């Protein structure tokens, strides 16, 4: 599919979904007036991340003060089933991030209510829920539909074990529509995991809002913080103390709220 054809197909796919019209308007504005937002400050962000990054093992053992066992070894049967579920999915969505970090931050926070933006196959959801279910906690998830892949909605969260799904509350809109709906259910959270709109402006909007909903002692995590300078600038402006974790050549940022 060439670029023009993709744009036309995307536009008409949105027209079939009135519930997504607000996001369509935002995308039109972003693509006309704010195309550089996704990579703003990328070079300085990568240098910053590299200069202070630690491994997921060091973060879990030295910061969270917990013995590190990789997530896939903690839940080998569920992990194997999840890999099979992803392999059977006929649509291509985002892959897994640092599942161990996601699991252990929920354990560290003794989380009862966690929130994430971005689901796709549901790897991060799986990791969070593996912790939450032991306390009968709830994971609230916001996930923008893959608008050009008609079958994708059937496979969102497909790697999440069925036994965990009773503790999962999914909202299928862009964050600016999903988050207010989630906040009607819960207005404070023990863990925040951000992995949706990757633009500079989109991140800063969400970071400020989600931080305000995070409990004292809770943990804030954002994936792919080397993609642009949003996380770096957010931390510096608000005097947050970040932990940068390198995993598979990418960087995640974590802040523990005092």
Textual characterization of the structure:
The chain has 258 residues and is α/β, with parallel strands linked by helices. It has helices at 3-15, 21-33, 42-52, 56-63, 71-74, 76-88, 99-108, 123-132, 152-155, 175-185, 200-212, 230-238, and strands spanning 54-55, 113-117, 138-142, 168-171, 189-194, 214-222, 242-247, 250-256. The protein starts with a helix and ends with a strand. The model has no long low-confidence stretch (mean pLDDT 89). Pfam families: Methyltransf_24 (PF13578).
Alpha-carbon distance between the two ends? 49 Å
Q: Strand content of the residues, in percent?
A: 15-25%
Percent helix, as a range, is: 40-55%
Could you state the CATH homologous superfamily? Vaccinia Virus protein VP39
Q: In CATH terms, what is the architecture?
A: 3-Layer(aba) Sandwich
**CATH fold annotation:** Rossmann fold
Widest sheet, order of strands:
1-7-8-6-5-2-3-4
Compressed to H and E, one letter per element, the order equals HHHEHHHHEHEHEHEHEHEE
What would you call the quaternary organization? single chain
The total count of helices amounts to 12
Computed CA radius of gyration, to the nearest angstrom: 18 Å
């Amino acid at each position: 599919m060439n670029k023009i054809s993709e744009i036309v197909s995307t536009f008409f796919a949105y027209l079939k979904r009135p519930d997504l019209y607000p996001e369509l308007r935002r995308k039109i504005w972003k693509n006309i007036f704010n195309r550089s937002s996704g990579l703003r400050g990328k070079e300085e962000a990568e240098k910053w991340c590299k200069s202070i990054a630690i491994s997921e093992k060091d973060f879990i053992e030295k910061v969270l003060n917990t013995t590190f066992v990789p997530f896939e070894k903690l839940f080998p049967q569920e992990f194997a089933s999840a890999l099979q579920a992803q392999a059977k999915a006929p649509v291509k969505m985002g892959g897994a991030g640092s599942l161990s970090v996601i699991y252990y931050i929920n354990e560290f926070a003794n989380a009862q209510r966690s929130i994430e933006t971005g689901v796709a196959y549901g790897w991060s959801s799986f990791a969070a829920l593996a912790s939450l279910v032991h306390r009968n906690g709830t994971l609230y998830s916001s996930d923008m539909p893959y608008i050009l892949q008609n079958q994708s909605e059937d496979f969102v969260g497909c790697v999440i074990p069925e036994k965990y799904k009773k503790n999962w509350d999914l909202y299928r809109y862009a964050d600016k529509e999903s988050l207010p709906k989630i906040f009607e259910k819960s207005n404070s959270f023990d863990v925040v995991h951000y992995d949706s709109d990757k633009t500079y402006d989109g991140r800063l909007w969400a970071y400020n809002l989600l931080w305000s909903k995070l409990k004292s002692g809770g943990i804030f995590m954002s994936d792919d913080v080397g993609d642009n300078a949003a996380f770096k600038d957010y931390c510096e402006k608000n005097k947050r103390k970040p932990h940068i974790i390198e995993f598979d050549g990418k960087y995640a940022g974590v802040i523990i709220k005092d």
